[in-house]
Amino acid sequence: xxxxxxxxxLLAKEERVNFQYELIDKYKLPIVSMRVNYPGINKDNELxxxxxxIIKNELISKFKENIVYKDYKNTAEGPVFTLVLKNIxxxxxxxxxxxxxxxxxxxxxxIDVYDAQGNGLSRTSLGLPSRxxxxxxxxxxxxxxxxxxxxEDVVGFIENKxxxxxxxxxx
Length: 171
Fold this sequence. Notes:
By secondary structure, the protein is an alpha+beta fold. It has helices spanning about 5-25, 45-65, 90-100, 140-145, 150-170; strands spanning about 30-35, 65-75, 80-85, 110-115.
């Protein structure tokens, strides 16, 4: 696992977005993009990879009949899992929100859904509440943008959730 710079993060994000548009252009179907909510610049690490693998398998299980294409990469943004699905984008979003809200590690990931035109689907567009911060229950977007919490607290939450998952599954 490499050490990355902020420039690497920005380039990886640009490459991910371009890749998503290429997939939408090629398949003309909705896509799912999953990344781990790992703070700081070193997002590609052993913990983020383990969490990504678990949620990747959950998504494959949830959408197995609808998968047209899947891709997994470790990047400066951390692990990125992408799916192209034969399904209605709104249905996909509802199922991914269910993973984010009810899977033990769901709060540790961002699962974005884009329709066949490349438009991102938000929770609020489906009448669902905004995502809450896992430390203080404010809107996650507010805490992320303002850097309200220190990195150690966020990493601690993620580590605790992962350890809890491992205990529950006797791993």
